[in-house]
Amino acid sequence: MPPTTAPALPIRSPIVEPEPAETVLLADGSPLRLRPVRRDDAARLRRMFYRLSPATIYRRFHAPLTAPPERGPGCLIWADLYDRYATVALIGDEIVGVARYDRLTPPGAGGGSDAELAIVVEDAWQRRGVGRLLVARLVAAAGRRRIGQFTGTALGDNRPLLGLVGALFPGASVRLRDGEYQLRLRLSDFAPGPSPAGRGPG
Ligand SMILES: CC(C)(COP(=O)(O)OP(=O)(O)OC[C@H]1O[C@@H](n2cnc3c(N)ncnc32)[C@H](O)[C@@H]1OP(=O)(O)O)[C@@H](O)C(=O)NCCC(=O)NCCS
Q1: Nearest one of 73, 85, 91 to 137, comparing CA atoms
Q2: CATH no. of 22-201
Q3: In the 8-state DSSP scheme, what is residue 8?
Q4: Long-range CB contacts (< 8 A, 24+ apart) of 177-180?
Q5: Hey, how many other C-beta atoms are within 10 angstroms of the C-beta on 189?
Q6: Is there a contact between 181 and 153 (Cβ–Cβ < 8 Å)?
Q7: Are 39 and 79 in contact (CB under 8 A)?
Q8: Residue nearest to atom 15 of ligand 1 (CA)
Q9: How many helices (H) and strands (E) would you count in the chain?
Q10: How far is the CA of 119 from the centre of ligand 1 (A)?
Q11: pLDDT in tens, 39-95
Q12: Could you tell me whether strands 114-121 and 149-155 are parallel, antiparallel, or unpaired per DSSP bridges?
């Protein structure tokens, strides 16, 4: 695994306090911890990247990356917890999934209410409810930061993402253009579905 020099935006939200961590039991009893990304997550996010299958990497980044992006919106830790926000899901001390939004334009407290959504759950933890929980936390955080709608793009064969969107945003606009689905998800359409087995503080 190559060393990283990945720079991160300072993780701070001058306007809204970061959400507290919570622990939720998955259906199989595994305790999943959910919290905002932290500056010291860089190494955890890098380790998660190297556990992803090529197919999962391609679906998340739309490119056959062999190393995590070190800069820009694709950089997993790039966050200020206001315009760029990421929620991470941990099993033990390892991150197994991350969902993020990036406000489209302009940034800051007077910014627009559309944000691009991106999510990935590592292969071994897919289809266990992690994605659903990550999106729920992200929607709650986004709403507190004046985001009203997520946009996103899914490759034409990305049935898991289309399934997730269909399960959580019944009113979603999903349009196929040039082999990719363009998604528009109003936060007001979010319908979280059944509650997990249990939850508690940090
Ligand atoms: C899309 C993704 C995040 C879903 O995460 P997940 O943790 O597996 O999702 P969950 O287990 O919470 O599933 C929630 C719902 O989504 C749908 N879903 C999830 N995986 C699915 C699949 N393989 N096929 C069809 N529907 C699926 C189901 O409706 C599911 O509810 P159910 O299990 O009660 O039927 C995950 O597959 C992933 O990381 N994919 C690669 C990256 C990617 O495509 N990112 C999107 C572009 S940025």
Answers
A1: 85
A2: 3.40.630.30
A3: -
A4: 179/155, 180/153, 180/154, 180/155, 180/156
A5: 15
A6: yes
A7: no
A8: 164
A9: 4, 9
A10: 10
A11: 899 999 999 999 999 999 999 999 999 999 987 667 788 888 989 999 999 999 999
A12: parallel
Of 32, 91, 101, 126, best ligand 1 pocket probe by most atoms within 8 Å of the beta carbon: 126
Q: Contact, 15 vs 82, CB < 8 A?
A: yes
* DSSP structure string for 185-202: EEGGG----S--SEEEE-
The residue nearest atom 34 of ligand 1, judged by CA position, is: 129
CA atoms lying within 13 Å on the CB side of residue 101: 32
Q: Which two tokens stand for residue 124?
A: 């071994």
List pocket residues of ligand 1, CB cut-off 6 Å. 56, 59-60, 118-121, 126-132, 154, 158-161, 163-164, 167
How far is C-alpha 131 from the chain's CA centre? 8
Structure tokens at 113: 């209410």
Residue 17 neighbours by CB distance under 10 Å = 9
Tokens of 115: 């944000």
Residue 165 token pair: 């969107």
Span from the CA of 3 to the centroid of ligand 1 (angstroms): 30
Q: Which of 49, 53, 26, 21 has its CA nearest to residue 37?
A: 21
Report the C-alpha gap between 63 and 65 in whole angstroms: 6
User: How does pLDDT run across 126-177, given as a tens digit for each residue?
Assistant: 999 999 999 999 999 999 998 999 999 999 999 999 999 999 999 899 999 9
Q: Which atom, in ligand 1's list, is nearest to the CA of 125?
A: 7
